[in-house]
Amino acid sequence: MNNLNSILIEGNLVRDPLLRSTPKGTPVCTFSLASNRFYKQDTGFEKEVSFFEVETWSKLAESCHTLGHKGRGVRVVGRLKQERWQGPDGKPRAKIVIIAEHVEFRPDFSDKKDSQSEETKEDLAAAALAAEEELDTSGLVASEIAEEPMVETMVF
Length: 156
What we know:
single chain, five-stranded mixed beta barrel, 2 helices
């Protein structure tokens, strides 16, 4: 029986997403997410920033690479994965990565693009197609299969 391993996090992209491929050609997109937390201290409010690495696979990876850019707001639903390896000094190393199963982008109101431009409409159409398209998982190992990838643009 699997234990519960689920995370929901919101924040902003720290850098532009990086798209790579596995040796079998499966797209993998990675990006960093900064999440802010505000809390009250004796003298006023304090800000705490946490940074997280996020990994997406297959059509979700392609959509995240297309729609994401530094500073854009994003909501990620996924699971935590611990990666372990041996460092060059022989000491064991580890890091926690979020494997995204669902990604939502906040509307992009930057000066770079008009929100009603053709490029934005094409991005939304591509995201909708990627979310609806069935994945051909034949020939992939279990770790390369992203379960039900979804990309949405949130409207506030």
